[in-house]
């Protein structure tokens, strides 16, 4: 059953979740924020796909261990939560995650922009179009920018109630997804 949420976020490579450096990496901190919200409130709708396979370490082989585990976690998922910030870089791991999720699994994407907290940061409320400061961030992750036309994508600021709404929205779940395109919550 594909009922998990796959969280994709940039961390510098090599990555080791146990090191202090990983916990200080901003995009990893936002992923931990989801885990904390779920830990504090079991009704928070985040079902962590990363918990569905054995943990991996950077010392593991990319082709025989890391890549297959990433793909298995994505295959267990109904969508992807992508944290896209000004610090996001196109690392090998995040490129693989996004490419496989969109181009192989056709998973809807919930893009959370951690640098922003208001809907008006994401869209021009008068024109109902995505702001240039948001579209400029897409260049940080070219595989996302170049593949996004294939699936429904909702763009939201880093706000718990909007993240919760997106996680509960059937339009952004694999089995009930809406048509491919860009979506956002209007101001």
Which helices and strands occur, and which strands form pairs?
Layout: E1 4-8, H1 20-24, H2 26-40, H3 62-75, E2 77-83, H4 92-104, E3 109-113, H5 119-122, E4 123-124, E5 129-130, H6 132-137, H7 142-147, E6 152-157, H8 160-168, E7 181-184
Parallel strand pairs: 1-2, 2-3, 3-6, 6-7
Antiparallel strand pairs: 4-5
Characterise the protein shown here.
It is built from 8 helices and 7 strands. The chain is an alpha/beta fold and 187 residues long. Helix 3 packs across helix 4. About 3% of the residues have low confidence.
Morphology call = globular
Structural class from helices and strands?
alpha/beta
Cα(first) to Cα(last) distance is 35 Å
Sheet with the most strands: spatial strand order: 1-2-3-6-7
Helix content: 25-40%
**Poorly predicted runs of 5 or more residues:** 19-23
Task: Pick out its properties.
two-stranded antiparallel ribbon, five-stranded parallel beta sheet, 187 residues, single chain, globular, 17% strand
Explain briefly what this protein structure is.
The chain has eight helices and seven strands; from the N terminus they run E-H-H-H-E-H-E-H-E-E-H-H-E-H-E.
